Amino acid sequence: MGARFCTELTAGALESGSLPRMTSTAKDFVRGSLNKRPFRPGGLDDSQSSERILPEGASNGEWVQELLNGGAAQAVPPSFKQGLDLGDLKAYPYAWNVYKEQSSLKCTSYEKMCLQNELSVQFDDLFKKAWEEDVTEFEGDVHLSENESVNSEAEAEKVVVPSNAADTELSALDEILSVPAEGSMSALDEIVDGGGQHKKEAWAVRGGNEGIAERFYELVPDMALDFPFELDKFQKEAIYYLEKGDSVFVAAHTSAGKTVVAEYAFALASKHCTRAVYTAPIKTISNQKYRDFCGKFDVGLLTGDISLRPEASCLIMTTEILRSMLYRGADIIRDIEWVIFDEVHYVNDVERGVVWEEVIIMLPRHINIVLLSATVPNTVEFADWIGRTKQKQIRVTGTTKRPVPLEHCLFYSGELYKICENEIFMPQGFKAAKDVFKKKNMTARNTGSHAAHTAGNGGARSHKRDNSTWGKQNKHFGSHSSGNFSGGGAGYQNNGNNLNNWGLRRSDASLWLLLVNKLSKKSLLPVVIFCFSKNRCDKSADSMAGTDLTSSSEKSEIRVFCDKAFSRLKGSDRILPQVVRVQNLLLRGIAVHHAGLLPIVKEVVEMLFCRGVIKVLFSTETFAMGVNAPARTVVFDTLRKFDGKEYRQLLPGEYTQMAGRAGRRGLDKIGTVIVMCRDEIPEERDLKHIMVGSATRLESQFRLTYIMILHLLRVEELRVEDMLKRSFAEFHAQKKLPEQQQLLMLKLAQPTKAIECIKGEPAIEEYYEMYLEAERCSNEILETVMQSSTAQQFLTPGRVVVVKSQTQSQDHLLGVVVKQPSAVIKQYIVLVLKPEISSPQIPLAGGSSQDSKTADFPHGYMLMPKSKRALEEEYCSSVTSRKGSGVVKINLPHQGSAAGVHYEVRGVDNKEFLCICNCKIKIDQVRLLEDGASVAYSKTVQQLLDTKPDGNKYPPAVHPLKDLKLKDMTLVEKYNKWTNLLQDMATNKCHGCIKLEEHIKIAREIRRHKEEVNSLKFEMSDEALQQMPDFQGRIDVLKEIGCVDADLVVQIKGRVACEMNSGEELICTECLFENQLDDLEPEEAVALMSAFVFQQKNISETSLTPKLAKAKQRLYDTAIRLGELQAKFKLQIDPQEYAQENLKFGLVEVVYEWAKGTAFADICELTDVPEGLIVRTIVRLDETCREFRSAAAIMGNSALYKKMETASNAIKRDIVFAASLYVTGV
């Protein structure tokens, strides 16, 4: 393990760039700097990006040739405007003497070729021998005989392999380090890898080898960390692979023990004197893990606002921090051996999922990866992508078994109905609940108690937030005597009648009380109740005003804990309405948990819940993701949620994540999950899908961002195309590349047929190109003609037309319009000729097959003898004068054959006409459509056949300009082009050639072959990448605003944009370069900057000072301009949406007052935004101030630097920046 890490680290360092890496200052050691190059990502070995290091003139030898021919040396580096100015210094005179070796002069070209072949064969043989010889033979036979050593010396003389002292030292170091690595691990290599054969077959290798779990303590005798409990099978497998130095993907349910694997990686890092990094998607998880690991390991914490002990061997950080370190080339990366990604299924997050992909792609090859995820269907596929991307094997292990089995129940009408157990749906339980529901509804209808039903109706539709009556108190958990209370939360809608609100609230309160009493009697507390809105949580908790669930000792414990926790706040902050209200709830064993809570309040709730003194917790779904605190029971207030765009049903993965909080390992034998049912019971198929359906697949959310592009353009060794290729979105396309390469080689190796022209040099390809172009023009002209209103006037009965064929293999069909559309039949009725059949030949009395008289008739026409014709079929040359009823009496489609040709009468849409011909025939509509007389069909078919000119399939089309009088400029141009092409074809020597048809076929094959080859080349190129158009558009935008120059060299504006991580990089950069903050005071500047980081939509209007209002409008106009610029370059961006999405001015007034020193309680009165979101915004704003400060240093703007420093100090105070209880302890 140590040997592999050291070797890969050394190789990575050598590959990190074309120039040697300088060690950074202590200040930049952890976070990195924009002056540093990133380490070369692992798996980029086959990339062509390294070719960018050398300019074309250097790589193709032009510069050297110029120098040899007496020219001047290159003095201006690529992308520089000018070279060094050496003043009066003159170039030293020099001359080149070029000699050729005598031996090479004597060799003939044939000898040279033989010599090269001989050398290459010997070189290949050396490698072949090295690969094929068995390792054990080398170990067993160390000493060489004299003859062997002489031979090897002779071979060494023939092939000189370049080497230097550094290589020798490295190989010697590898040899020393590799000895202990083969100890205990070699025994199982044979068991698991099967002699290494499996490794070459797949990058993702699923675990499950029984040998590991059975012989674990024999295979891993000296564990880096001992556990006080027996490890599960998947944990043993993962630990074994970690000991081997393999990367591991562990997929298991919540509370199954995935953290054991992370702890072992930490222990290994400590043992090997390296570092390990633990990344989590949420800051709360980072803080919790810091507290959990603090006693066991040497731990540090890095988040946006906290940096604790960055020198520690085990670092916990958010994924965004790790991405920043990778892009900025932090030297601490050298020391990292393990990176642990927790909650990997977060890669599905639309906003932040791309960060996981970026980090995985950017990790250097010496770093091993540990991935911890909930159970997902495509674990192996995701692991395979990582393996291929990093060019290292990923071991997949895990378990689908829950440590505490779950039972799922419906709560309806005061009773629990079990509907699912051990992942098996139980229809009988659902049926029992449904029967009660039907009986109750029947009783309600019979007694006519509609009003009572309305009052108790929580609704099963959407929840409407009421801002009219709750006012400010709504934000502080609401009033006990007012408010529009919706019983269904985010997925339900109230009745909209304020007069019934009190009855509604009472009904819902009694429902919660009924449930809690039921759970208490069955010993199913503590319970987490998931509601899908912050308001819903607050109102539900307030509705249980008279409920007390704690004993006196628990009350004492809660009071002492709260006093200690809140003692760090200053006096006015301790009596904030939210703090007081939460303490009152806590003392009764009830709590709420959502993003609107102050961070310190949220942590108090989490810690007390973990202690078991909180019995009922109303929470949003963030509690399931961010807090490791299982309960005895989980309750779903509803199975619908608002996801930011629409109300929808919960996904199976979301339900599983939240339901997984039920059941405490070691305390409960079974966990209970309850779904609340108010006025209706969900459908059985919906319940089945949510409870036992397949979890959401891991899918790529990769998207290009400007900051990603700028970071990659900053470094020559990395290309944006390489990042795109290696994204999970492109995985399947890239996986097919080897097959496509083989197919391309086969296509290129195929011999092409030669065209032997009897008139000299072949010109058939040129002729065929003209033929295809003429055909395309003709089709476009016909399409335009058919869409014109004039053409419709020509489609009268008797007009000869060409109808499009329904199959590609058939010719288009010649036909005649029989009837125009009517009110009854909306289509044209057309008689079309089908492909010809052989004419039936009737033997005549003379015995010959054809009488001389029949030759007088046109081809395909035969008249039956009069004696054999029916009366109504008497041949009649004139159209009947009988007036028809206009009703179509034949069944459509009507098929038959006449004159030796199949025909069909059917309805045809306007779009099905390919061409209108310039001729008409006489038809008998009445006899055709009403009588169905076969003689009428015979005559019509014969007339149609007569319209065909000699040698052509169809009559000529109506002339679009002369006949239809069309004046459209585009049509005229196309028509002229078409006629010119026909003239050029007529002058070509191939026109009229006897071999034209044969050569056209060959030309068609040659063209098809070329198109297939070009298509394959395109699919294998960078241009075929899904996001390539988006990339080109973004590059054009960056050029336009001056972040990069024409040669894609990052300018100072681009370097500033690289610093902008918390806000939209383009808007922030333009704001700085337009000096929009220069005329603002520090307090005003930081208030305006809050628009970059605030995230909530739809809040009440704020009142701003005239100066701030002007600055706000100026910034908004900048965003609109940038949005329009991006839309101009074909990016899918709406300027208004872009501005509104990235600039939210809802907290400008609040932040302005806070920066001026106003107390927190007072600024809360200025807005209806919850306190927790205010704190979160101000904390992120401090990070933005640091970024703007760094940008000011790059720009050389000292005034802005000082302003940002002052602004940061102004907002950094009191409850907003109270230290986390997880970090400092209570």
UniProtKB/TrEMBL annotation:
InterPro entries in alphabetical order: Beta-barrel_MTR4, DEAD/DEAH_box_helicase_dom, Helicase_ATP-bd, Helicase_C-like, MTR4-like_stalk, P-loop_NTPase, RNA-DNA_Helicase, SKI2-like
Residue stretches making up the ATP-dependent RNA helicase Ski2/MTR4 C-terminal domain: 1045-1223
Taxon lineage: Eukaryota, Viridiplantae, Streptophyta, Embryophyta, Tracheophyta
Disordered, as annotated region: 33-52, 444-490
Main localization category: cytoplasm
Recorded superkingdom: Eukaryota
Locations listed in the record: Cytoplasm
Pfam families: DEAD, DSHCT, Helicase_C, MTR4-like_stalk, MTR4_beta-barrel, Ski2_N
Gene Ontology molecular function, alphabetical: helicase activity
Protein name per the record: DExH-box ATP-dependent RNA helicase DExH11 isoform X4
Domain (Helicase C-terminal) ranges: 580-666
Span of domain Helicase ATP-binding: 227-407
Protein keywords: ATP-binding, Cytoplasm, Helicase, Hydrolase, Nucleotide-binding, RNA-binding
